[in-house]
Design a protein that fits this description.
With 354 residues, the protein is an alpha/beta fold. The chain folds into 2 domains: 2-137 and 288-310, Glycogen Phosphorylase B (Rossmann fold, 3-Layer(aba) Sandwich), CATH 3.40.50.2000; 154-285, Glycogen Phosphorylase B (Rossmann fold). The chain is 42% helix and 17% strand. It is built from 12 helices and 14 strands. Helix 3 (114-123) links the parallel strand 8 and strand 9. The longest helix is centred in the last third of the chain and has 32 residues, at 312-343. It is globular. The model is unreliable at 348-354 (pLDDT under 50).
């Protein structure tokens, strides 16, 4: 298949970005041709075909588009009026994850958890197709290669949005239990996937949510779900299934831990949970298994050959939306260029643009 993937941005190591790159590599390994579109790109991986300009690929004969984020979905529908689109939704709260406010002819919706599937079904018409398609974790990269202590001595905190108040609570709780801490992600410094698995294997427990918590379990580490949304506490073999329904996001209980209650939660740690959680997480999230399921979904959508029919009003809305965001991006780039021209000599700007 000739597959178009999109993500709103590829500039850090957040969940949808890593998902997109992991998906692309597994699809290529399975023999498919993959193009990635993202308007905001930094440090483009050399092994992938990535563009930030849709005009360069509008003539390509894609079979299907697997899209993240509402802006990209509208853009792809505008530029590819008859292309089947699968829209994957990773979370219910972020503005980019909200559904488009008008019909753009989505063939199938993918939700990363069962609770999110239920929420989408309430927003969509009964005829809409929603399938649970979970996170993709590369088990060739995330696996255990280091001993885990029976009493936790080291902790890794993986977070892009951790507020100062919760950072302080984690630091104090760990200090009281003589656990050393290392913070990565966001304002603490982005760590690439090629290095993150080493960081996880160097500790006993991991504070994170979503993808970070799942990657920890792949490495036989016991995660504690606690981040900007609050927390669901220590993941155990008994709580795994329940917490997976919300993709380990902290939304099940949304506990607002203080230092004392977090200390009590850490004390629930049992090192032997690690192996059990690894087996459970593999069954749900291993990219090797889930990529086959996704390819089957692609084939079913393509073979259904249901025509994409938009009303004239929805087409006009689509065109208006794309023209508006294109103009906004152009002004943003113009502003950046003007700021650069005031800061740097012209010959340096020319080298930077090249």
């Amino acid at each position: 298949m000739n597959i178009l993937l999109t993500n709103h941005h590829l500039i850090s190591n957040t969940g949808t970005e890593i998902y997109t790159l992991t998906l692309a590599r597994y699809l290529i390994n399975a023999g498919h041709h993959v193009t990635i579109y993202s308007n905001y790109i930094d440090k483009t991986p050399s092994d992938l075909n990535i563009t930030n300009d849709l005009s360069t690929i509008v003539s390509h004969n894609f079979d299907i588009a697997h899209v993240h984020h509402n802006i990209n979905a509208i853009e792809i529908r505008h530029h590819f009026p008859t292309l089947p689109i699968i829209l994957q939704v990773h979370g219910p709260s972020h503005p980019l994850e909200q559904l488009a406010p008008f019909n753009i002819g989505i063939s199938t919706y993918l939700a990363v958890s069962s609770k999110l599937k239920e929420k989408l079904e309430k927003q969509l018409p009964p005829s809409a197709k929603v399938i649970v398609s979970r996170n993709l974790i590369d088990s060739n990269l995330f696996f255990s290669n280091h001993y885990v202590h029976s009493i936790p001595k080291k902790a890794l905190i993986i977070s892009a949005y951790l507020p100062l108040e919760k950072e302080s609570i984690i630091r104090q709780a760990c200090q009281n239990l003589h656990i050393s801490c290392k913070f990565v992600g966001g304002r603490f410094g982005v760590v690439s996937q090629s290095k993150l698995h080493r960081e996880i294997n160097a500790v006993d427990i991991v504070f994170s949510l979503g993808r970070g918590a799942i990657e920890a379990m792949f490495c036989q580490r016991v995660p504690i779900i606690f981040d900007y949304l609050g927390g669901d506490g220590l993941v155990t073999p008994n709580s795994f299934d329940e917490l997976a329904t919300e993709n380990f996001s902290g939304r099940i209980h949304s506990y607002q831990y203080n230092v004392e209650s977090l200390i009590n939660e850490i004390k629930k740690y049992r090192s032997h949970y690690g192996l059990q959680l690894q087996k459970l997480s593999h069954a749900y999230y291993d990219a090797k298994t889930n990529i086959r399921k996704l390819i089957t979904i692609y084939e079913q959508v393509i073979n259904s050959k249901i025509p994409i029919i938009l009303s004239s009003n929805d087409k006009k809305l689509c065109e208006f939306f794309v023209m508006s965001i294109t103009q906004t991006r152009n002004f943003s780039r113009l502003e950046i260029n003007q700021k650069m021209s005031r800061k740097f000599p012209f010959n340096i700007i020319r080298k930077i643009k090249k």
